[in-house]
Specification:
Strand order of the largest sheet of chain B: 1-2
Mean pLDDT of chain B: 84
Number of strands of chain B: 2
Structural class of chain B: mainly alpha
Distance between the termini of chain B: 60 Å
Shape of chain B: elongated
Number of strands of chain A: 4
Shape of chain A: elongated
Low-confidence stretches of chain A: 1-15, 353-358
Order of helices and strands of chain B: HHHHEEHHHHHHHHHHHHHHHHHH
Largest sheet of chain B: 2 strands, parallel
Order of helices and strands of chain A: HHEEEEHHHHHHHHHHHHHHH
Mean pLDDT of chain A: 84
Distance between the termini of chain A: 48 Å
Low-confidence stretches of chain B: 1-12
Structural class of chain A: mainly alpha
Helix content of chain B: over 70%
Largest interface: A-B, 35 and 37 residues
Largest sheet of chain A: 4 strands, antiparallel
Oligomer: heterodimer
Chain lengths: 378, 461
């Protein structure tokens, strides 16, 4: 009966660790105030904003604070004040929307020149990828009327000729379901926008979230390797991180597989665009929720992976506190083998003695370390 | 030097020792990658005293580049004492420190007394491990260090009995005997030292986690049970690795070490003397190493911050000692750092900042903004130190001056920046505004930056 008792306790611990839904977990906001770093935003029962602060108590639980209470407790960077203003304007708060907001603020230069340059690059990349995705969708549609990409790019054709042929072909596609050609273009635009964060499987380059899943895999391997070779107690936390990362990765890959399958047949754009759009939006939304928060942790690990072992041990402990736990609705048996009790004990033990938030004065060095991670994020 | 040079076939050795120093100086002009290639080649030449001239010349760059070191046997032998080593120019006597110049003759003498089998075995085993793995090195080198303790005792005894032997090796300096003794004491607890180093954050140790404090405490207690005197070498190494060594002194006060109360008191007094002396030594080096420097102000300010932090951490202990000499030395050290901060960091920092941000047509580059940030950070660090160093008035005035210049220059830029068609602030103006706000945030805090943001936003819409 001991076994059952243990697994019962593990489940109990897991309940302490894991939120019920993604909404309850909240969306990660890339603040630069050190105590707010990786804070999660959600709505309370009265629909007001509240933040879950994993860094506030450094391992002794997650603190929940209303936004209004924050300025009384700590000094916020100008970046964070402006970011929150942007967030307040949003109607819904998905990871994709928060990311767009964060890049807008970051691009102003309020958190330094390198993050600003990086934000502009990322926004450009997003724009280019959207064009690429929409182009692929168009070529898939043209195949339905037996026109290939090569037909648009025959020798001697000008760009205008290509566009004209494409427009005529799309009109033919539209005629199949008896809708105006412009409506077909709008469908392509909308579906392209919805799928672009993950991208289409046949694209020559992976979309942002698909690439993030690949990086998460490398991260899981790196942290597992750390766990296998590090002689300190932090090895156990490395194992915990790798387990949660692998679990997340499995779920994300399943979702990506389903999305790819949904996008396989271009005829759906013609026959049932609203349904396809809904399926895509739901899948992409789920994938972005699953991967929310990992980008920052990957950047944290990347910044120390060639450093001395003591630095890696401390970073592993910090990462373990910030892990985006998979909500119970998604949880499988993957974490059952972990001694979560021991993990919590270890996290508390690695708290830095001198870390003092009570002074309320901003530690600009810590702020700048966070900003440099922003500049390194993909 | 040719890129394709095979490892193990270094350039023909220059004739005189001064040639080696010259080679070291020449190498400094090379880019990092080339310098590291030459460093690796020189390492393979082996432990020749004249080559140390070349390493000496290259040391400033090597300290920044930190190349992984091939673990020569001599280096492994001295590894537990590496934090106690000073260059010849910076060596301070009677402080339990060890001069690098002592190492080469010391190794020549001790290796004669260490069994060849031990030396070979250590070298053989080292080939199989990652030499950044401190804990593994500790296990492999234990026999070497144990043999080293005995070998050092023999060398010291021989020095006592045979003047010619001593003169040949170390010259007339009596201080060398004391250095050898410090080394011997550290080697006696070498395994523990290395394991501890591997378990703690890299130097300078800034923050200790609760688990780190526990590890240190356990080590002190275990050693104290064996023999209270054995804790001293461990404490010496540890104190040299910490930014706030005063914390270690406090920890020492709380730990029951075994032995008598008088022994503990002597140990505390000696350790306090070392910690204070070592900080003073660094303060003197600090000024000497950076005469009239204009380079990276932020890292200079960080160094000043580190030393002031260290001095603050020993305040209680120094007061407890009631030793007028040490008290006055600490006071002088503070005055020296204060002067350094005012002269080298605060003097022209506002001009540097303004030049980096505003002296160009159009927007400054990312590098220029970062340079301006560094200036602002240097001032911010100085303001943190101003209280303990007694220079609040001067630093506050400088910050006000720098802030006023940033605000005035940003305003001037915003007035002249091209507007959008609807009259709102154009992208260039926006970027300049945020560059200025960022400097104000670093210098005067986020509230002031926000106030200006609202103000400018409404003025320039």
């Amino acid at each position: 009966m001991t076994d059952q008792g243990d697994s019962g306790r593990t489940r109990k611990m897991m309940e302490d660790f894991a939120p019920a839904t993604f909404e309850e977990r909240g969306v990660t906001v890339p603040f630069t105030t050190p105590l707010l770093s990786q804070a999660r935003l959600r709505r309370d029962q009265n629909d007001r904003f509240e933040f879950l602060l994993p860094n506030f108590t450094a391992g002794k639980g997650t603190y929940v604070l209303p936004w209004k209470g924050l300025p009384n407790v700590m000094t916020l960077t100008l970046h964070d004040r402006l970011l929150f203003e942007e967030i307040e304007q949003l109607e819904t708060h998905s990871p994709e929307q928060i990311r767009a907001c964060a890049l807008t603020v970051q691009a102003t230069g309020v958190c330094g020149p390198e993050p600003a340059t990086r934000a502009s690059e990322l926004r450009d990349q997003d724009g280019q990828y959207l064009v690429l995705t929409q182009f692929i969708l168009v070529t898939e549609l043209l195949k339905l009327v037996n026109i290939s990409a090569a037909d648009l790019l025959r020798p001697g054709m000008t760009a205008d000729d290509s566009k004209r042929v494409a427009r005529q072909a799309l009109a033919k596609v539209a005629a199949m379901v008896d809708i105006p050609p412009d409506d077909m273009t709008t469908r392509v635009d909308q579906i392209g926008e919805a799928v672009s964060p993950v991208g289409l499987p046949q694209a020559p380059k992976s979309g942002r979230l698909r690439a993030l899943a690949d990086r998460l895999q490398a991260f899981a391997q790196g942290t597992q390797n750390f766990a296998d070779t590090d002689p300190s107690e932090a090895a156990m936390l490395g194992n915990y991180i790798a387990t949660v990362a692998n679990h997340t990765l499995t779920l994300a890959r399943q979702r990506i597989g389903k999305l790819d399958a949904a996008c396989r047949d271009a005829r759906q754009i013609v026959n049932d665009a609203p349904n396809l759009h809904r399926v895509i939006a739901e899948s992409v939304g789920r994938i972005s929720w699953l991967l929310d928060g990992w980008e920052f942790l990957i950047a944290m690990w990347e910044s120390v992976k060639d450093g001395p072992s003591a630095t890696k041990q401390t970073t592993i402990t910090d990462i373990s506190r910030l892990l985006p736990m998979i909500p119970k609705e998604e949880i499988s048996a993957a974490t059952d083998g972990l001694d979560l009790d021991a993990i919590q004990r270890l996290q508390k033990k690695w708290v830095r003695v001198n870390q003092d938030w009570r002074t309320g004065v901003l530690d600009m060095d810590a702020v700048m370390r966070l900003e440099s991670l922003k500049a390194a994020m993909g | 030097m040719n890129d394709k040079s095979k490892p193990g076939t270094p350039a023909p050795p220059p004739g005189k020792p001064s040639d080696w120093a010259a080679l070291g100086a020449d190498v400094l002009r090379l880019p990092d990658r080339k310098l590291l290639q030459i460093y690796r080649l020189l390492e393979q030449v082996g432990d020749k005293p004249e080559i140390s001239d070349a390493f000496e010349a290259m040391r400033p760059r090597l300290t920044t580049l930190r190349p992984p070191r091939r673990p020569a046997l001599s280096r492994l032998f001295f590894l537990p004492a590496e934090d106690m080593l000073d260059d010849t120019l910076h060596y301070t006597r009677r402080l339990n420190r060890i001069c690098r110049a002592t190492l080469s003759p010391c190794w020549t003498a001790v290796k004669e007394h260490i069994p060849a089998a031990v030396q070979q075995e250590v070298q053989r085993e080292m080939a199989g491990i990652d030499y950044r793995d401190g804990a593994a090195i500790a296990v492999i080198c234990e026999p070497l260090w144990q043999a080293g303790v005995e070998a050092l005792a023999k060398v010291m005894a021989e020095c006592q009995n045979n003047l010619k032997y001593k003169l040949n090796l170390f010259g007339r300096d009596e201080d060398v005997q004391r250095q050898l003794d410090t080394l011997r004491q550290i080697l006696a607890v070498a395994v523990r030292v290395e394991k501890l180093k591997a378990a703690l954050p890299p130097r300078p140790i800034l923050d200790l986690a609760e688990s780190h404090v526990e590890i240190i405490r356990n080590n002190l207690i275990e050693l104290g049970k064996e023999e209270a005197a054995l804790t001293q070498p461990l404490l010496l190494v540890l104190a040299s690795r910490m930014q706030r060594p005063g914390e270690l002194l406090r920890m020492l006060g709380e730990v029951r070490l075994g032995g008598t109360a008088a022994e503990k008191e002597t140990l505390t007094k000696e350790m306090s003397g070392y910690v204070v002396g070592n900080l003073l030594r660094q303060t003197t080096d600090f000024d000497r190493e950076n005469p009239g420097i204009t380079g990276d102000l932020s890292s200079l300010a960080a160094a000043a911050e580190r030393l002031t932090d260290g001095l603050n951490s020993v305040n209680d202990t120094v007061q407890g000692l009631r030793d007028k000499e040490i008290t006055s030395k600490v006071k002088n050290a503070r005055a020296e750092i204060a002067q350094f901060v005012l002269k080298n960091i605060c003097a022209d920092v506002d001009k540097g900042l303004t030049e980096a941000l505003f002296s160009h047509e159009g927007l400054p580059s990312d590098e220029e903004v970062k340079k301006a940030e560094q200036f602002a950070m240097a001032l911010r660090r100085s303001s943190k130190l101003a209280g303990p160093l007694g220079i609040q008035r001067e630093v506050a005035a400088k910050i006000t001056e720098a802030r006023t210049q940033v605000v005035n220059n940003t305003l001037a830029t915003l007035r002249n920046a091209p507007r959008n068609r609807d009259g709102s602030m154009g992208p260039e103006g926006q970027r300049q505004m945020f560059n200025g706000l960022r400097m104000v945030e670093i210098l005067a805090g986020s509230d002031e930056a926000e106030r200006l943001f609202r103000d400018w936003k409404s003025q320039f819409r």
